[in-house]
Amino acid sequence: MTRPTVSVIVPLYKTEAYVENCLRSIMSQTLREIEILCIDDCSPDGSAAIVERLAEEDDRIVLIRHEVNLGLGGARNTGIRAARADYIASVDSDDYVEPDFLERLWEGAAGGHYDVVVCGFVRVAPDGEVLSESGTTKMKVIDPIPADHDPFRISEPAFWNKLWRRSLYVDNDIWFPNHIYHQDSATTPRIYCKARNVRFIGGDCYKYLVRDDSVTQSTSDKHLLDRYRSVDVLKDFFIREGLSDRLKDAIDDRVYSGYSFHVQSAVQKDDNKATAMDTYLRHLLIMREAYLEYDTIVRGMSFEEKAEHLVRHKPLPLLNHITGKRDVPHPRRPLMPRKPSVLVLTLYSGENEFEAACASLEAQTHRNWKHRVFRGGGPMGAPGPHY
Questions:
Q1: In the chain, at which end, N or C, are there fewer CB atoms within 10 A of the end residue's CB?
Q2: How far from chain centre, in Å, is Cα 112?
Q3: Stated pTM of the model
Q4: What is the DSSP secondary structure assignment for residue 4, as one 8-state letter?
Q5: How many Å apart are CA 229 and CA 222, to the nearest integer?
Q6: Distance between CA atoms of 266 and 216, rounded to whole angstroms?
Q7: Spans of the chain, pLDDT less than 70
Q8: Which of 235, 229, 230 is nearest to 251 (CA)?
Q9: Half-sphere exposure (Cβ direction) of 285: Cα atoms closer than 13 Å
Q10: Strand order in the sheet with 342-347
């Protein structure tokens, strides 16, 4: 059997209404030397039967069945392990792609030079209406990826609009976590810590279907907990790789920003914002702040210490953000912001009140601030510190 150029991974779970459209968009790719690995993750509907029917038309389709449900991450891992090509791509089974999706990604790899190739995508409604375009449409190259890079800022974490060198996963023992949401966010930054380079080819070849019943449109206790399970996967990896100190701020920023898309989607969908959604958002905020405040402290505790705090109802000491030391617990003490540094910007054009404004800054009780004044020279003026 001829070795394929690209192995395409298609996880299957409860997408009977969409999977045929997805697979036919892959079967019609202009890049013909591919294999299509469909991973049946114990789907309770007729998705696998549709794959079997289409496999009679196209022998490039391979159906692999799980004996137990492993979740989307586990299905992707099965596909990566089974892939015969040096490069892998993935299409979620409710999405679809343009006919030149794989050919453009493969051409972007430049004969095997690039480790990761990224294309643009659009979000579409079930009727095909374009809801929004992606932010990955600009063409650029990062070659090599700098040693001091932030792996969260190279691209959005989605697995499905990219071509990946398979060895990045296999040789580095990097796999998607099973049975958690946000598995892309837990995996792609680790891959970018190992990748040599990445190329962005633009376009909008991938069509991401927005469904009312999709994970990103839903809320649950699992959404609450899995955000931190995914961050833990990253933290454990960064500690093993000796990157935790350098990437601490990046991790914290990720915790802060990680809920943005999920919360926006959930709030827009929710019709009862004053009750259940209000409680949900309260829980999200409480867990976010508690995780940022205490995770480092608790990671340094032994198993026995953790158990003692829980069994004996002992409160954890608060971290003093000024001294960096742990204080005696006080249940009424408010937490300070984690990043209290403030940058104050002033566009100056000769106002008489300028000195009074500076005096009001000097009188502030919060002292961790910097003042930058823009005046003259260039469209925004030349920045220069007033103090």
A1: N
A2: 25
A3: 0.78
A4: P
A5: 10
A6: 8
A7: 1, 134-137, 212-219, 258-259, 261-262, 265, 269-274, 318-340, 350, 352, 359, 363, 365-368, 375-387
A8: 235
A9: 6
A10: 342-347, 369-375, 382-385
